[in-house]
Amino acid sequence: MPPLQSSSSLSSSLPTPNPLSSPMAKTLCSIFLLLSSFSLLVPAFSQTDFTLTGFSSGNGNGDANITLGGVAEVQNSGVLRLTNETLRLIGHAFYPSPLRFKNSNGSFSSFSTAFAFAIVPEYPKLGGHGLAFFIAPNGSLPGALPSQYLGLLNANNTGNASNHLFAVEFDTVQDFEFRDINDNHVGIDINNLESNKSVAAGLNLKSGDTIQVWIDYDSARKLLEVRLDQSSSKPRDPILSYAVDLSPIFLDEMYVGFSASTGLLASSHYLFGWSFNINGDARSLDLSSLPSLPKPSKKNYALIIAAPVSALIFLLMAIPLAGYLFYKVKTADVIEPWELVTGPHRFSYKELKHATRGFREKWLLGHGGFGKVYKGVLPGTKEEVAVKRVSHESKQGLREFVAEIASIGRLRHRNLVRLQGWCRRRADLLLVYDFMPNGSLDKYLFADDAIYPPLSWPIRFRVVRGVAAALLYLHEEWESVVLHRDIKASNVLLDGELNGRLGDFGLAKLYERGANPTTTRVVGTLGYLAPELTRTGKASTATDVFAFGALALEVVCGRRPIDPKASPEELVLVDWVWERCVAGNWKETLDPRLAGEYNSDEAEVAVRVGLMCSHPAAMSRPSMRDVVRFLESGDPSEVPALSNTPPGSGLERGELGFDDFLHSYPSSFEKASSSSFSNGAGVFVHSSPV
Ligand SMILES: *[C@@H]1O[C@H](CO)[C@@H](O)[C@H](O)[C@H]1NC(C)=O
Ligand SMILES: CC(=O)N[C@H]1CO[C@H](CO)[C@@H](O)[C@@H]1O
């Protein structure tokens, strides 16, 4: 069965044949035409009415009902995927032939459309960038850019009347350049990406659920209405209505279709069905009859394949270990072969349960990257520990756990949070870390002064030096190169003496020294991501250095790398610091909470090292060895002069670089980062919970 069932009334682009031919009918017809010229009745017109309940891109025999552009593809199920979760993509899909929006009397047609879509973001709360229904002179939208341009326009033609572009955007990123109201809105765009009118979507566009949209334009009332709902029936009230005369925007013949794009953040954008009608109501789609997304997802497929394979491997390995395992099964702790070779100590579940008083809420320190973190007191030694309980609901839970054990397990450095050991019991994965009594660095930098007193200069400088030393150890001094990949203030914890210690190695991966790091998904946090990382997805020691630079400036200036509350020129911290430095006023960038009490040489070194590390070109950033040398000397004359390249430059505006951070900066990040107070290795506490 072909995935596409075109509606029985499909009469694409064909004038409705006039069935009236008798003289009587002709009279009726002229009355009809007369009336219609007074707009009292719907005029005689060409009609287009189609309903696609699923899509077919054709098999080369000219039977395609949708033309694709960019990375768009029709899947076997009939689902049209405009983009996948790769960065900076464009996907287009449009009706193969242009449609006439002029009635035979020259008046402008009404039109109506309904479609069903879903947006599945790569990271649950961060979509990128959005989807739009468009009507344009050319279905392939030549010259269009991804990211905030939604695959519709580019930096040069945005706003031009010659675009003849009408679009309704479903935007999941708040873009400041186009004055987006939030990161979940519906907007009407005419020749421009700055919406003529927009409203909050009212439901979560990037929930991954199927959403039906109805867009109706009444040419007599000159009124555009947009409705959306997660159901098959059209809601009574529009969420957006806009009085507009579209006739000057449209050419006589226009293409209708969809565009979606991804940027620094990415979502898969899907379409399931589409109906369109000129001078009539588009048919509502019955969501239950449309093709749907495959379940289980790709990741679960991997599990389905991986499970029998690992079971086999496990069986093979289990034979020599059978006796040992039999003993262990009796103790109810699961042991896997790799657990026997790593360094850290293995705890019994009973021991940890006792240490955390049965994982009581009262002992909860916070929510770490992949689960809850509890404070514990080991029964024998009375030593305080932090126990991270990796939640099994998290699909990545197990993989993260293995990565964490494998990398952090044997690392030993005074500026790293030490992993003491682990435990597994059924679905529970438990990691035991040194307890960090003073919590995470970001609290001291940004939270209320009354609860977290501002850190003095000597402590700040020591924290920066400590983190630099830890990174040098990871990059150059251990047996293999370890990339941290997620250096940020909430991942730096303060020990009893307020030394900075890097935590959360859940994202780290081991690389053999000298081997080429393979391309992987970008992990990390906006504002700390090096430009080349967002472009190529390749983490390297230079991307860690970049993140360290952002962290160093953050500590010295007391501001986040991207601060949405700051004025536009201060929005991107590194840009602002660089400008102040070039103007010779670097002291203005220091955290006012230092109240002028700092060592001027050390502060200058820290600011300049922060800027060097933030260089847009990876090759121009120093190595961690150099960074440590500059910081240890505390002498500004040891630090090379600032380069002439401003941070973020060397990359075309709108192409990539800090612009992308800016444009892609979703408002939800603010929420995310405040909750990430408790998002470090989770090895912290601020007050004793007992
Ligand atoms: C997404 O699509 C692009 C272009 O078709 C392809 O190169 C890339 O491998 C795809 N990515 C994923 C994650 O499937
Ligand atoms: C595959 C498929 O159903 N194609 C249909 C697309 O629409 C035309 C009419 O315009 C039909 O004739 C095709 O069968």
Textual characterization of the structure:
There is one protein chain. The protein has 690 residues and is α+β, with helices and mostly antiparallel strands. The chain has three domains: 46-289, Jelly Rolls (Sandwich), CATH 2.60.120.200; 329-435, Phosphorylase Kinase, domain 1, CATH 3.30.200; 438-503 and 543-645, Transferase(Phosphotransferase), domain 1 (Orthogonal Bundle), CATH 1.10.510. 25% of the residues lie in helices and 21% in strands. It has helices spanning 23-37, 298-330, 337-341, 349-355, 397-408, 441-446, 457-477, 531-536, 541-557, 573-582, 600-613, 624-633, 658-664, 668-675, and strands at residues 49-52, 67-70, 73-74, 80-83, 90-94, 99-100, 111-121, 130-136, 166-171, 185-190, 197-200, 211-218, 223-229, 240-243, 253-261, 267-278, 345-346, 364-368, 371-377, 384-390, 419-425, 428-434, 481-483, 492-494, 500-502, 509-511. Strand 18 and strand 19 (371-377) form a beta hairpin. One 2-acetamido-2-deoxy-beta-D-glucopyranose is lined by residues 71, 84-86. Residues 71, 84-86 line the site of one 2-acetamido-2-deoxy-beta-D-glucopyranose. It is an enzyme of class 2 (transferase). ATP binds at residue 388.
Q: Would you state the CATH class of the largest domain?
A: Mainly Beta
Oligomer: single chain
Q: Please identify, by name, the CATH architecture of the largest domain.
A: Sandwich
Low-confidence stretches: 1-22, 27-46, 296-304, 325-332, 337-342, 506-522, 648-690
CA-atom Rg in angstroms = 30 Å
Q: What global shape is seen?
A: globular
Main sheet record: 8 strands, antiparallel
CATH topology of the largest domain: Jelly Rolls
Ligands, ions, cofactors: 2-acetamido-2-deoxy-beta-D-glucopyranose
- Beta-strand percentage? 15-25%
Give the % helix: 10-25%
Number of helical regions: 14
Mean pLDDT: 77
